[in-house]
Amino acid sequence: MLGTLDESHIEDLLREATVGRLGCSDGGRTYVIPTSYAYDGESIYAHSYDGLKLRMMRNNPEVCFQVDRLEGIGNWRSVIAWGRYEELSGPDAVRGLELIMQRFAPLMGLDPNDPPPAHGDQSDRPSFVYRIRVGEKTGRFESS
């Protein structure tokens, strides 16, 4: 059976998933990348090193974000959210990093109150915290 997820199931999936796919476009080129994230009920928060993804979102901040949960070929749930990219600084960036650390530190065996771990050879590149302010969401499912 195919169906549409109600708002509570959409929210549940956005909060449960740890990786989503971020879609952005600029200059006629579309880019979709897997992204770990935290969701606070209004916005998706993520952290990234400077590169193509951030350049594209700076040029065209309208993005989409997709998460899914696949339990079998005929048993899945999927959510797509559309929103606007915002690069964060100051207290907003600190809050974003805190949300990300609260979400992922336990999965990495870390204390959520510790500073984020260094990322090896990436540490010389500037990194940024950003959020996607979610405007519209939709969800579908199939269950056999």
Task: Tell me what you see in this structure.
- This protein is of the alpha+beta class.
- Strands 1, 2, 3, 4, 5, 6, 7 and 8 form an eight-stranded antiparallel β-sheet that branches.
- The chain has helices at residues 7-16, 52-59, 90-104, and strands at 2-4, 19-26, 29-36, 38-39, 43-49, 62-72, 75-88, 127-142.
- A hairpin with a 2-residue loop joins β2 (19-26) and β3 (29-36).
> For the CA atoms, what is the radius of gyration?
16 Å
CATH architecture: Roll
The dominant shape is globular
> What is the domain tally?
1
Oligomer: single chain
Q: If helices are DSSP runs of H or I spanning 4 or more residues, what is the number of helices? A: 3
Number of strands: 8
Q: Structural class, from helix and strand content? A: alpha+beta
* Beta-strand residue percentage: over 45%
Characterize the main sheet.
8 strands, antiparallel
State the end-to-end distance: 6 Å
Fraction of helical residues:
10-25%
- CATH homologous superfamily placement: Electron Transport, Fmn-binding Protein, Chain A
* Mean of all residue-level pLDDT scores: 91
Q: Give the H and E element order.
A: EHEEEEHEEHE
